[in-house]
Specification:
This protein has three domains: 30 residues, no CATH class; 107 residues, Enolase-like, N-terminal domain (Enolase-like, domain 1, 2-Layer Sandwich); 216 residues, TIM Barrel. By secondary structure, it is an alpha/beta fold. The longest helix has 19 residues. The protein starts with 10 loop residues before the first strand and ends with a strand.
């Protein structure tokens, strides 16, 4: 077993041997132990997008123990990518951690699929930050004062309910509206009549290319900042065709899972949505951000419906991006964790070590 180059508090003595008349302690590196549990998060409102409705979010909470420290991680796997909490837990039941050094992140994360890798990656970063007693944003070298303002999402519902949801958050400076239903144009028109802030829209792959052009040209009059994923993923050339025929900027989500997807999107869209669960955690998100910058693509940092653990992990990267859609804690009714906070939508990063996430008192 490889020893870590760290102080004596990181080791425990498990034996003494006699060598040339001298007693020598043989040290063993403390093992890294992982526990995964399911977290059920009731939602404030049923959350509907073009693919379906949820009243409860299910995520996997990672607790990584090493040297009396606990690293918290989370993943919110999506059936859209054939992943769920059960598949994540099964991976680690069959495949134990590949080492006992939490700093060997590449080794520990190797060969894991994205959702499983995300949960472990976040827990490792939290653990390392706690070990060196520094906030993760400081280790990443970002300026916490440069966080963006996040959008708040209004899911699909009846027109009256969607307008009522907007009224609940009308003081929020940015709203994202889920589209992909019969009365979507009328709802956006009514929203713009009563809301003067920034409007973003997200079709979640609901339209055909022809529908996208027609609808976006109709919606352009309402000063839409951008449209997210108007058509099914997999055909960047069709996104280019749409972009050439509308003034509303396009941002991908389902089309941009990780850094390898981005080269094909250059020139076809204006920006990409980076989500830790899709790409596989903080390391993979940094690779996406660097790749997008090299390709002159704007970047949005997004989330699933999740607890403050995963949203706070993403928020640590937010000073590096153009837009944020990190409203997971807004959507849940009983989050057992505290982390990132908001000042009129502007992300405020915790000051504590690692992610800075704490558990609420029971």
């Amino acid at each position: 077993m490889r020893l870590l180059a760290r102080g004596p508090e990181h080791f425990r003595s498990n034996a003494n041997v006699r060598l040339a008349g001298t007693s020598v302690a043989i040290a063993e590196v403390a093992r890294v132990n992982l526990a995964i549990s399911e977290l059920k998060l009731p939602l404030v409102h049923p959350f509907t997008i073009a693919r379906g409705t949820a009243e409860l979010a299910r995520t996997a909470i990672f607790r990584l123990h090493w040297n009396d420290l606990e690293g918290l991680g989370e993943t919110a796997p999506s059936e859209r990518y054939h992943e769920n909490v059960a598949t994540v837990r099964a991976i680690f039941a069959k495949q134990p951690l590949g080492g006992d050094d939490p700093y060997a992140t590449r080794q520990l994360l190797a060969k894991l699929p994205p959702a499983a890798r995300c949960g472990l990656d976040v827990a490792l970063h939290d653990l390392i930050g706690k070990d060196v007693d520094r906030p993760l944003w400081r280790l990443l070298g970002v300026d916490p004062s440069q966080t963006p303002v996040t959008s708040f999402t209004v899911g699909i519902d009846t027109p009256d309910t969607m307008l009522a949801k907007l009224d609940e958050i009308r003081d929020h400076p940015i709203v994202k509206v889920k589209l992909g239903f019969a009365q979507e144009l009328e709802v956006i028109a009514a929203m713009r009549d009563r809301y003067t802030g920034i409007l973003r829209i997200d079709a979640n792959e609901a339209w055909s290319p022809d529908e996208a052009v027609a609808k976006l040209n109709e919606l352009a009059r309402y000063d839409i900042e951008f449209c997210e994923q108007p058509i099914p993923a997999g055909t960047p050339e069709r996104l280019r065709w749409i972009r050439e025929r509308t003034s509303v900027p396009l941002v991908t989500d389902e089309d941009s899972r990780d850094a390898r997807d981005l080269a094909a999107l250059a020139g076809c869209v204006d920006g990409v949505n980076v989500k830790l669960v899709k790409c596989g955690g903080i390391r993979a998100a940094l690779a996406m951000i660097a790749t997008a910058r090299a390709l002159d693509l704007k970047i949005m940092l997004g989330c699933m419906v999740e607890s403050a653990i995963l949203t706070t992990a993403a928020a640590q990267l937010s000073p590096l991006v153009d837009w944020a859609d990190l409203d997971g804690p807004f959507l849940t009714a009983a989050d057992p964790f505290c982390g990132v906070t908001y000042e009129r939508g502007k992300l405020v990063l915790p000051q504590g070590p690692g992610l800075g996430v704490t558990e609420r008192a029971a």
